[in-house]
UniProtKB/TrEMBL annotation:
Gene3D superfamilies: lambda repressor-like DNA-binding domains (1.10.260.40). One of its GO terms (molecular function) is DNA binding. It comes from Limosilactobacillus equigenerosi DSM 18793 = JCM 14505. This is HTH cro/C1-type domain-containing protein. Keywords: DNA-binding. Residues 1-46 form the HTH cro/C1-type domain. InterPro entries: Cro/C1-type_HTH (IPR001387), Lambda_DNA-bd_dom_sf (IPR010982).
Length: 99
């Protein structure tokens, strides 16, 4: 499909489609909805939203200091044990936020 054809389907100019492709402009919410319909995909997929929420990802992300703590507990532990420690830190962080 050409930019001109897509523009006609979304009711925008070929130049607007070019601007979207070159990250010079972003489509309106209506255009995003129409693009999702045209390509039979979700608006989340089109916008690059991953499954889950950004806040859930943020909650499960350890800071560099937390990783250092997990890795420095014992230099002789295995990588698997270090991963277990990091999981425990994540669980502790999650539980702390609930209190």
């Amino acid at each position: 499909m050409s930019q001109t054809e897509l523009g006609k389907l979304v009711n925008v100019s070929q130049q607007t489609v070019t601007a979207w492709e070159n990250n010079k402009a972003e489509p309106t919410s209506g255009a995003v909805t129409r693009l999702a319909e045209i390509f039979n995909i979700s608006t989340d997929y089109l916008l690059g939203v991953k499954s889950g929420t950004a806040s859930a990802d943020k909650e499960n992300t350890l800071t560099e200091n937390q990783k250092l703590i997990a890795y420095s507990i014992d230099p002789d532990i295995t990588d698997e044990e270090r991963e277990d420690i990091m999981q425990l830190v994540k669980i502790a962080m999650k539980n702390r936020r609930r209190i």
